[in-house]
Amino acid sequence: MSANLINLLIEATGQTLYMVAISAFLGTVFGLPLGTYLAVSQRGELLSAPLVNTVLGLVVNATRSVPFIILVVAIIPFTRLVAGTSIGTTAAIVPLTIAAVPFIARLVENAIREVDSGLIEAARAMGATPLQIIRKVLIPEALPAITLGLTLAVVSLIGYSAMVGAVGGEGLGDLGIRYGYQRFMPEVMAIVVVILIVLVQLVQSLGEWIAARVDKRAPKGRGQ
Amino acid sequence: MTNTMSQAASIAFDAVGKAYTKPGGGTVTALENVSLTVEPGAITGIIGRSGAGKSTLLRMVNGLEMPTSGRVRVGGHDVGASKGSALRAIRRDVGMIFQHFNLLSSRTVAGNIALPLEIAGVSSDKIAPRVAELIDRVGLTEQAGRYPAELSGGQKQRVGIARALATEPKVLLSDEATSALDPETTQTVLSLLKDINRDLGLTILLITHEMAVVRDIASHVAVIDGGQIVEHGRTYDVFTAPQHPTTRSFLSGVTGVKLPAFVEHKLTATRPATGGEEVIRVTFAGKHATDPMLALLTKDLGIEVNILAGAVEEIGTHPFGNLLISLPAARADEARAYLERHELLTEVLGYVS
Ligand SMILES: Nc1ncnc2c1ncn2[C@@H]1O[C@H](COP(=O)(O)OP(=O)(O)OP(=O)(O)O)[C@@H](O)[C@H]1O
Ligand SMILES: [Mg+2]
């Protein structure tokens, strides 16, 4: 394999990591509060607002229903507005983030709804405000599940990032398509796939390790 | 720390009603016209069957439930009329412990006890010494850095108690706090509550479905049935002279004094035309509790008495006896009159021929 190709692979890996890291970060910044709000605004919950909850839920579902490749193309005007250009690796972060936010929000929502309602009751009995309950009870208690959810989101983003070649985004997926498919160099395709598998494995293991570290509950099976 | 209440807060329920709206429409009446004044600085037990409305009543004291009619006053504050920061201030003066402990799994023992202080906005340099003091108070010094998953049920409840006491409340609410514990651990937790009541003078309101818990620590008791208080008063008075059938059925459970099966099966409600024996429950209380009354009955009236079951125990420091006896039905009226004259309580359970 030529040195040139090795350089291309290293560069592409860096671009993938760059897109995934930034979009995962931004997805969390917006998805965590959105998911938390979706959980606590349900009827009868801490900040019960059924109407707002339903509307937000519809928006989230709609975004999640659009296939990623269509989303990428459909939001090109928005991408240009935000990133200044609609072409390239940095521009690709916009659709990745738009896809990540509702996904992460739903994962966070589920994690928070799993928190024992007895804990919310105990905090209310202490005189906690809803915001204190969210910050000091719900998020810390849901953290192991949130960590696993974010791991899942990052793995999905690695997959999505392979499709951004459609709008001139680079990275491993784009390299695989251009060399492996269009120039018919199956070994490049193979190496790209191996790197992706290794990346996903690393992310998954790291996520599980962190989740285990923050989880102070009794191990499953031993019971409470 | 802000204390909005005077020492030894009083709790008063005034014609309180609570109806829940069911999700599909319609209402469930959980409480109806409940009036009760809780003795300040004392331990009051609330006993009743499942669904009687105990939790609903207790949760109104800190506004976790609001009354649909009537008023709940705690330390002079109308809980039902409070909301927002006024309600949160009341809640900081009312500690609560739970059947399933409700500890944060993500925080250590010390972290859990610190939570109400953080919520109350106490500065972190004041939190540490206060937490240490509370941990010491409940005897968990060794476990301060452990997580709830590494504690036994009894230790978890101690953390719950320390947490409930953190903001120096005037009232402590306990909803079945010992129901998930074994009998021995129950005893240690109950005696901790007793010590706290004595040392800190706070008013404790505790829910239970076990009369034994009431007997062991409560000086006052209220019996609730079908959303209404059917009997209340000093524990000793209620134990020795129960008025309501619900109270009686709870008591027969706690005294452990039950008819032997062979008598129970033959028991009839009507007096046989001739012969036969009357089965009576005799409750000894007050100054005659330890007198040999049955021996005197035989001696004075010449009536032979058969003892079927019995026990003498203590409520607080007072002895309290419970005997099931049978004696010839023909002379039963005479015998009961004699016992009543000597301030014993009698209750006819039935007849055997
Ligand atoms: N949130 C609620 N919504 C509807 N009905 C309720 C609600 N909470 C309680 N109830 C009803 O009110 C009644 C009293 O309930 P409560 O929880 O006070 O009983 P309890 O005496 O504490 O019973 P247990 O010993 O089982 O805890 C029951 O019929 C119950 O089904
Ligand atoms: Mg209950």
How many H/I helices of chain B? Answer: 12
Domain count of chain B: 2
What CATH first level of the largest domain in chain B would be assigned?
Alpha Beta
SSE series of chain A? HHHHHHHHH
- What is the straight-line distance between the termini of chain B? 70 Å
Query: How many separate helices of chain A?
Result: 9
Ions, cofactors and other ligands present here are: adenosine-5'-triphosphate, magnesium ion
Radius of gyration of chain B: 24 Å
Using the coordinates above, name the CATH class of chain A.
Mainly Alpha
Largest sheet data of chain B? 6 strands, mixed
Sheet with the most strands, sense and barrel status of chain A: none
The average pLDDT of chain B is: 89
Biggest chain contact: A-B, 23 and 29 residues
Write a structural description.
The complex is a heterodimer of chains A (224) and B (353). With 224 residues, chain A is mostly helical. Chain A has one domain (3-214): Orthogonal Bundle (MetI-like fold). Helix content of chain A is 78%, strand content 0%. Chain A has helices at residues 3-40, 50-65, 68-74, 76-83, 89-113, 117-125, 130-161, 172-182, 186-214. Chain A is elongated. Chain B is of the alpha/beta class and 353 residues long. Chain B folds into two domains: 11-244, Rossmann fold, CATH 3.40.50.300; 255-352, Alpha-Beta Plaits (2-Layer Sandwich). Chain B has helices spanning 54-59, 84-92, 109-119, 124-137, 153-165, 183-200, 211-217, 235-240, 245-255, 261-266, 293-301, 332-341; strands at residues 11-21, 27-38, 43-48, 69-74, 77-78, 94-98, 171-175, 203-208, 220-225, 228-234, 277-284, 306-315, 318-328, 345-352. A six-stranded mixed beta sheet of chain B has the order 6-7-8-3-9-10. A four-stranded antiparallel beta sheet of chain B has the order 2-1-4-5, with no helix packed on it. Chain B has a four-stranded antiparallel beta sheet with strand order 12-13-11-14. In chain B, a hairpin with a 2-residue loop joins strand 4 and strand 5. The interface between A and B is medium-sized, with 23 and 29 residues. Bound molecules: adenosine-5'-triphosphate and magnesium ion. Magnesium ion binds at residues 54-55 of chain B.
